[in-house]
Each structure stands twice: as structure tokens, then as C-alpha cells.
Write a structure and sequence with these properties.
This protein is α/β, with parallel strands linked by helices. It is built from 24 helices and 29 strands.
Length: about 725
């Protein structure tokens, strides 16, 4: 059996197609006329349609490791797995909402089309950029434009040669620093030199088709090395790239298929004239369908994992390994397959790793200077290392290190921020950024546990519960006025007392007038005529008012009612004055012992309703994020005010917010965690105060990078 298959190479076909398209047709026809059974080769975008069309018309199978194309031609077998679903899963895993997609039109547009369709469904903002030039000036202009737009999240979908050129320009233009994240839509992540990215701190994620640690690839690689050694090859042995692995599996696919046909004794011989590919109409090869079926039915474990094809000639049941590179090195973060989609890798803690790796290094513990959690000692210059600091979190970090069994070094975060994501660059700052970009191992600080932060770092159980509260400057003590004696009772009560006083006096006057017992004869002086007697009544209107006033003042007077009805009215009035005077005395004592301060606001609702008092939060922290994401009407109104206020109401540190409150003369309120608010309120000069209740409920937690071995060991 001769001329089983023919090999075509990309460079040859590309040159032919670019220079003279008819020559390429002659090459295919020449091979067909020689009686080839199958064609193995690479294609470009300009050659793919011609090759697939001829193979479909002539029933000659074409096996290729080139980029997958969307074709219904059953005689084309594509060795390279499709990448679009895996790429979308990774973009979704990182929760990207806005990114740049750099692609090579020569590679086809199937991946881009899938990404754009998904973007429309999930409201992603995708900027698609076609690489039309390979010149240095073209790359420079491209990345300068992206820098102006503050684009830091980039997907690069190119073949290896162009991908290496793009990565080289990224390094040259210094777009590989902290905050940049690149996803490489390529199946050979380990084939790319990314050392410059590792040193500069950029995050690079990609896919690896060949897992050289698996049994079969490792065995084949060892055989390959031994073969080179037997041939006395002096060239340094290098691990083959994924395209070479696909070529190896492609040859094995054909070998397995023809062995299967031979075992089944299927006659595929081509006797006599092999045929004319330019005949009109085309005359297909009769046995081509048998070879096509045999090729599609091949299944084995190769260098690229499970090699299997579906009815359309595309790879199926394959696994892609997802690799991530940060400044601390390369690690596998999971894998992707058609059934499970993206599956994150188990963390060291989940895998039951031992403590040896924890104990054999010094961990960096990032924190922030914030009273009373972390403070510099007054004589800090006399100490070194961790001994320079004191506070709640300093002691907590020491206890955790003792419990887990590791040595550590406290590092104050350089930018003095807790950690928030820049809405434009998507880069994290503060302590969260230290963990995300691998510059620290643990964060022990008053770091609030939030959903957004938990997407990029891990938290322990809360070690302190708290909520957002309002800090204002303590109002000045109110000076007593002329009528301050009225303060123990409300003005409404005083008015009721006045009306009651007048009413009782009038009733007493009327009762005395109508009652005969209140009338009596006056005593005559000696010598006067006693035959005539004048009746008199002591409770005139003025005496009635005097009697009621004397009773109210608990002083009494020289007259009292004689009639039963008058005494009943007087008794009721005495009982009323007893209750009122007792209550007044009790309230007066409280008013004399407790200083009266009139607060201009009492709650968040009061803040939202007015515009005279400005209010703000920390510039980069969970409190600002709370208002930005809140859907409660009051908090939405407050956020609308804060983000548009001029001058800015946000502060860089809690200390700056406290100073601003003290210097504002009551015209600025600071929103911060309740624990810090209460602490500052008790510290001299004691001129701030917390008003109202907490706006929410949350907690402080100890943070570690995603997947850290310390995650469960330090759980409180």
C-alpha cells in the first residue's frame, strides 16, 4: 500500500496562494492524481475554503491541526479543540464587564462572534480590535489608544507568532505592570515566555492543551528524549509545542484509522487512473467515505488528551487546563470541559496540605495605621520590626501566628487605603490590592467583609461586628435663658396649667357665690348699731385667684372654703398641684445634672433631607461602596449628593475625616464604622459624637489571597 497520505505545510501553501492561486489547485490535483488516501496539512484563511471545497467534492479527507473553522464538510477533521466556550467561561469567572478583544482576522472570526453574542446577552462592553499591522509603530499606537481609554483588561486571540510579537510590544511599552490582566486565547500557555510579565506584576491567564505531567504525554516525551540521545543529537532538547503535539496526534489518527480498515478487510485500493479533480462534474473517490468514517471513529489517549471526533469532524470530550501567572509564579487554577465547564482547582487547604510549607517561610502581613487597631508606639524609633507597633490588630496578628505556627512581618500598606476597585482600570488598591497582586500573604486590619472583596480574596469569620454610623461635631452647651425654668415641662403643659388655674378659680368663685355657707355676717365694732347685719363673701374673683395661686405654689393663704362644694373644688386643685409640682421637681433635677445639647441631625434621614451640613465617607473603602451599591431610597439620595458635591466630601484617611469634622464648626458629618466612631468620641478633646443608630450590619475579617493555604488554618 503506497501513497497512504500526503503532507502539506503552511508556509508552502501560503506562498503559493499569495502568489499564484491556480498553482495551489494544481498541487491538490497532483496529489489526488497520485492516489493519496488522505491529506494532512495546515491552512490559512485564504486557503481553507479551497482545500475544504476540493476535499468535499473529491471525498478525500483533510486532517488539520490549524485553527477550527465553522464548516459542515464531513471530510475535514479538525484536531485543534474549539476555544470559544472555554474563553467565555473564564471571562465570566473573572466577572469582566468591560474589556478589549484583540484578534487576528487571518485566524477566522468564529471565536469573536461567540464572544460578541455572549456580550449582548450579558451586557458586556467589548472593544474589538483587529490587528491589521505587525509594525512596531502600529502596536505602539494601539496600546496608546487603549491607555487613553484606561483599558487594563485585554483578551488576545492570535496565532503563536503574532501573539509573541504582541507580548513583546506590551513589555516594551510597559503595559505589563500591576493592574493589567491579559487572557491569551491560545492553547499553548506553557509555550510562551512570560518571565517579563512575572517580574512586573501583571496577571496573565491562558489555556494549556497538553498536560505533560499525565502518564501518556510523559511517557511519549521520555521516548522522544531517548530517541534524540540515541541519535547523538547535540541540540538541547526542548519540549514540543502544542502544535507539534497536535501533529503527532494527527498522524496517529490516520495510522489508527488505516489499521482499523485493514482489520475489517475493507478494500480501499485505488487501481488504475486515480481520477481527475478538475472533471466537470467532479468525480468523487468511491472509497473516500469509508476512510472518512474510519477517521471519525478513532478514539485514543494522545499527547493532547482524549482524541475523539463528533459527526462534524470536530474534537469532543476534551479537557483544557486553565493556567494563571502572577508575580509569585505559574499555577493551575482549574480546568474546562464540555460537561462541567470551568471547574476551579482545589485549594491547598481543601487538598489537605501539611503545615511544612507554612512554617518554612516568613509571611508578609499587610495592615494600615488606624487607631486603635494599629498604632506606632511613642518611642517606635527605639524598636525594630513588629515591635514598633501596638494595638488590637497587632496583638491579633501575633496570636494568629502563634496559633498557626508561622513567622511574619508587619507591613503598612503604602497607599494608606483599605482596598477598592478602580471603576475605570478595574485595578485594586490598598490592602486588597496587596493580596490580589501577591505582595502580601495576610491582611490583619479593620478590613470590612464585603461581597465585592470576596470575589477576589478570601475572608475568615468576622472577629468584630459593627455598622456604618454618623460622626458630627459635638454641639456647644446651650446657655440658660430667662425662661429656662420652664424647660422641665413642655410648653403645652404650661398652657394647660394656666387654663386649669383660671378655670378652677372661676369655678371656686361661682360655687362660693351660689352656696349659702360661704356667706356670713360681719362683726360690728363696739358702739355701732347691731340691729342691721350685712352678709359678706370672702371668695370674690381676686381672692379665688389668690387661693388657687397659693395652693399651686404650696404656700396657702389666710382664707379657705367653708362650703362642701368649695372644699371639693379646692381639694381637687391641691391634688393636681401635688402631681404637677412633684413631676416638675423631678425633671428639674435631671435638667440641672445633665447638660443640654441640641443636635442638628439625629439620623441618616435627617442628613438626606438637608443641604446645609455636608457629609462624606472614606475615599476608598467599604463605606463608600455601600452607598454606591445601595438600592434603598435614602442611601441612593445620599450617594447622589456625595458623588456630585463640590468640593469633594470624600477623605483619604479616617484621621482626615475626623479633623474635617472638628474644623467644620458643625457643617460636616463623617460616615464611618461604629467602632471607630465610638473610640474617637471617647478620646480627647471629646468634641465629636455619634448620632443615630447604625445604618447596616457587617464585620471585620482577616483576609488572604484566593486559594491560600492559610485560609482555614487562621479561621477564628
Amino acid at each position: 500500500m503506497q501513497h497512504i497520505f500526503a503532507f502539506f505545510c503552511t508556509g508552502f501553501l501560503g506562498a503559493v496562494v499569495g502568489a499564484n492561486f491556480p498553482n495551489n489547485i494544481q498541487i491538490v490535483c497532483s496529489q489526488f492524481s497520485k492516489g493519496v488516501y488522505a491529506i494532512f496539512g495546515f491552512y490559512e484563511r485564504r486557503t481553507v475554503n479551497m482545500l475544504t471545497s476540493f476535499c468535499g467534492a473529491l471525498h478525500v479527507c483533510f486532517i488539520t491541526p490549524s485553527f477550527p473553522v465553522d464548516t459542515s464538510n464531513q471530510f475535514v477533521l479538525q484536531l485543534r479543540p474549539e476555544l470559544q466556550d472555554a474563553l467565555i467561561s473564564i471571562i465570566d469567572h473573572y466577572k469582566w464587564q468591560k474589556f478589549v478583544y484583540i484578534y487576528d482576522a487571518d485566524r477566522g472570526l468564529s471565536v469573536l462572534q461567540k464572544v460578541l453574542d455572549t456580550a449582548a446577552e450579558k451586557n458586556w462592553q467589548v472593544t474589538a480590535v483587529n490587528i491589521l499591522t505587525t509594525t512596531e509603530e502600529g502596536y505602539r499606537m494601539l496600546f496608546q489608544d487603549l491607555e487613553k481609554k484606561k483599558e487594563r483588561l485585554v483578551v488576545v486571540d492570535c496565532e503563536s507568532e503574532r501573539l509573541n510579537a504582541i507580548l513583546g510590544q506590551i513589555i516594551k511599552l510597559e503595559k505589563n505592570g500591576i493592574g493589567y490582566h491579559y487572557i491569551l486565547a491560545n492553547l499553548g500557555f506553557m509555550d510562551i515566555d512570560l518571565n517579563k510579565f512575572k517580574e512586573s506584576g501583571a496577571n496573565v491567564t491562558g489555556f494549556q492543551l497538553v498536560n505533560y505531567t499525565d502518564t501518556i504525554p510523559a511517557k511519549i516525551m521520555q521516548q522522544w528524549k531517548n530517541s534524540d540521545a540515541r541519535d547523538h543529537t547535540r541540540v538541547d532538547w526542548k519540549r514540543p509545542k502544542y502544535t507539534s503535539a497536535l501533529t503527532y496526534d494527527g498522524v496517529k489518527v490516520m495510522a489508527e484509522a488505516f489499521q482499523s480498515l485493514r482489520r475489517q478487510r475493507i478494500d480501499i485500493s485505488r487501481r488504475g487512473n486515480a481520477g481527475d479533480c478538475l472533471a466537470n462534474p467532479a468525480v468523487p473517490w468511491g472509497q473516500g467515505i469509508d476512510i472518512q468514517r474510519a477517521l471519525q471513529q478513532v478514539r485514543f489517549e494522545g499527547l493532547t488528551g482524549n482524541v475523539q471526533f463528533n459527526e462534524k469532524g470536530r474534537r469532543t470530550n476534551y479537557t483544557l487546563h486553565v493556567i494563571e501567572m502572577k508575580h509569585d509564579g505559574i499555577r493551575k487554577i482549574g480546568y474546562w470541559n464540555e460537561d462541567d465547564k470551568f471547574v476551579p482547582a482545589a485549594t491547598d487547604a481543601q487538598a489537605g496540605g501539611d503545615n511544612s510549607s507554612v512554617q518554612n517561610r516568613t509571611y508578609i502581613v499587610t495592615t494600615i495605621l488606624e487607631d486603635p487597631y494599629v498604632m506606632l508606639k511613642k518611642n517606635a524609633n527605639q524598636f525594630e520590626g513588629n515591635d514598633r507597633y501596638e494595638g488590637y490588630c497587632v496583638e491579633l496578628a501575633a496570636e494568629i501566628a502563634k496559633h498557626v505556627g508561622y513567622s511574619y512581618r508587619l507591613e503598612i500598606v503604602s497607599d494608606g487605603k483599605y482596598g477598592a476597585r478602580d471603576p475605570d482600570t478595574k485595578a485594586w488598591n490598598g490592602m486588597v490590592g496587596e493580596l490580589v497582586y501577591g505582595r502580601a500573604d495576610v491582611a490583619v486590619a479593620p478590613l470590612t467583609i464585603t461581597l465585592v472583596r470576596e470575589e477576589v480574596i478570601d475572608f475568615s469569620k468576622p472577629f468584630m461586628s459593627l455598622g456604618i454610623s454618623i460622626m458630627i461635631k459635638k454641639p456647644q452647651k446651650s446657655k440658660p435663658g430667662v425662661f429656662s425654668f420652664l424647660d422641665p415641662l413642655a410648653y403645652e403643659i404650661w398652657m394647660c396649667i394656666v387654663f386649669a388655674y383660671i378655670g378652677v378659680s372661676v369655678v371656686l368663685f361661682l360655687v362660693s357665690r351660689f352656696s349659702p355657707y360661704e356667706w356670713h355676717s360681719e362683726e360690728f365694732e363696739e358702739g355701732r348699731d347691731q340691729t342691721t347685719s350685712d352678709q359678706s363673701n370672702e371668695f370674690g374673683i381676686f381672692n379665688s385667684l389668690w387661693f388657687s395661686l397659693g395652693a399651686f405654689m404650696q404656700q396657702g393663704c389666710d382664707i379657705s372654703p367653708r362650703s362642701l362644694s368649695g372644699r371639693i373644688v379646692g381639694g381637687v386643685w391641691w391634688f393636681f398641684t401635688l402631681i404637677i409640682i412633684s413631676s416638675y421637681t423631678a425633671n428639674l433635677a435631671a435638667f440641672l445634672t445633665v447638660e443640654r445639647m441640641v443636635s442638628p441631625i439625629e439620623s441618616a434621614e435627617d442628613l438626606a433631607k438637608q443641604t446645609e451640613i455636608a457629609y462624606g465617607t472614606l475615599e476608598a473603602g467599604s463605606t463608600k461602596e455601600f452607598f454606591r451599591r445601595s438600592k434603598i431610597a435614602v442611601f441612593e439620595k445620599m450617594w447622589t449628593y456625595m458623588k456630585s458635591a463640590e468640593p469633594s466630601v470624600f477623605v483619604r484617611t479616617t484621621e482626615e475625616g475626623m479633623i474635617r469634622v472638628r474644623k467644620s464648626k458643625g457643617k460636616y458629618a463623617y460616615l464611618l464604622e461604629s467602632t471607630m466612631n465610638e473610640y474617637i468620641e471617647q478620646r480627647k478633646p471629646c468634641d465629636t459624637m455619634k448620632v443615630g443608630g447604625n445604618l447596616d450590619s457587617k464585620g471585620y475579617g482577616i483576609a488572604t489571597p484566593k486559594g491560600s493555604a492559610l485560609r482555614t488554618r487562621q479561621a477564628l
